[in-house]
Amino acid sequence: xxxxxxxxxxxxxxxxxxxxSFSWWLLIAPAVIxxxxxxxxxxxxxxxxxxxxxxxxFGNYERLLTSAALQRVWMTTLRxxxxxxxxxxxxxxxxAYALVSAPPRMQRxxxxxxxxxxxxxxxxxxxxxxxxxRSQGVVNEAxxxxxxxxxxxxxxxxxxxxxxxxxxxxxxxAVLPLYASMRDIDPRLVPAARGLGATRIEAFRRxxxxxxxxxxxxxxxxxxxxxxxxxxxxxxxxxGRTLMVAEYIKLQILDLIRWGVGTMMAxxxxxxxxxxxxxxxxxVDFRRLFGGRH
Amino acid sequence: xAALQHSLTVRRLAKHYxxxxxxxxxxxxxxxxQFVTLLGPSGSGKTTIxxxxxxxxxxxxxxxxxxxxxxxxxxxxxxxxxxxxQGYALFPHMTVAENVTFPLRxxxxxxxxxxxxxxxxxxxxxxGHLKDRRPSQLSGGQQQRVALARALVFQPALLLLxxxxxALDKKLRAELQVELKALHRRVGLTxxxxxxxxxxxxxxxDSIAILRDGKLVQEGPPGTLYERPATRFVAxxxxxxxxxxGRIVERRNDGFAYAVDGARFVQHGPPPAGDDVLIALRPEKxxxxxxxxxxxxTVEGTITAWSYFGTSFALIVETAAAGTLQVTxxxxxxxxxxxxxxxxxxxxxxDASVPVVRD
Lengths: 294, 359
Hints:
Chain A is mainly alpha-helical.
């Protein structure tokens, strides 16, 4: 480095803006402008509308405290998100564990199977669940056929249907951080624990599980936050009967043209996401969690 | 202390992975309170045997007995053996004290009792002052000691050690060899030690079992194995050896004479059956003799390469009769100045070498 610096011709001191050189700013300028124009500005606009429509003030936000319908939407959303997150994590943990334990060849195929759904449109997947779960769907027909039930089960257009579709969508997002944290565990640790007298279950509980905690937190954050703003799956599998926040916003803005309430809900959703992140950031180091160095 | 000592018998143990025989019919008895080393190159089956003893590998055939009790079907956690893994396998999310407490906690030892024993175990390895550190904050040698304390704290029946020093540098390794041996004397437990490092095996063990391709080749005290290797492999693996392949030309009561490419050498001890003989000759047992000095076996040659090790010179000498010989001469009393191309006269006594089996 020293020799390289010496070999370069002396240049005049560069203009520095906020501690970085002018050319550095030039390089990132397109991205910054794009973000400001198409992200920050509309966001500010949404925030602005939520305080000004239909009349200036906190009127829209007051509704959060007074409107039972709004509260119900939020409770439904939080409930479905929590259920989805818990189920996704348990299922994802099992899949991730199977992945790290599999021989390398097998592992590649398993990875393909985990990641493949990511490339299939969420719309297609939601409709696939509709065909499986509706009254005359494959699942109900099969259960009726073998005589387990004599009435079709209501598997869809309710919270159950939404949870099924969302868990299915979210599993890869849980598997990846969990897999990463499990892969980093020294494979001798569990045998060591057992050699020291721990049963399989104790070795898992006292050694393996605590070491995957960062992965569990990462997966929880990822899945929960994703779920909060989920739109397509709840819209299709909820059938308009079970409303989650994202669908409610769409309803307010596109169907009822109540921009004030819609943007208020959008802003609240954003705040909710930031709050969740802030809570978890107190517990874990996010930069490390998502692969950065600390 | 003697009450804690157990013997271990491995009887006709075999472990097959498909067509590969990782362990092939090994029978081995490890006496009470002994320090026994399983020594062999990688793939010799030594680690598989240790893992079978520990309970992590279920043998294809054979059985393992602690004293007289068969333990083969027991899971690892029921065997009550202390184990130090290669790379130590310390729990990174626990402090030193928590690591050492682990075996007591899973045994539901009362808190006060556990604290006392952990303090004792940490004192044993002189790490009491580091008990609140995490493993990642310790040096390799300290981690190794934590692993030892953790393996000893629950008063195990045996201590199993899987290449515990392989990750350390040479100097630290030598220090810890001395410490381990002292520890073995102090705690009086039976130690079973796996390594591929012959120096480690020689310096610490009461007994060494040499393994090759899943088979037990030779077993015995280090001195016996070094001085009287049974096979070419043992002579070559434990220390260095030159090999002379000859034909027996004369048999006497106390020895025999053999010819190698026309040169005649004498060997002490009973002659082996058959006319062909393979003689193992340690480099340090060859001396440089002055011209005309009488010696039972002499051979003339030219130094083709040499290196200086402080304590000794290692010479490569090209001879007409015995081929290329490695010779180690103490540096401070080397009679000639080593130089490439210099002629030397090598000599050794009839009991310096030993006949070995080809394998």
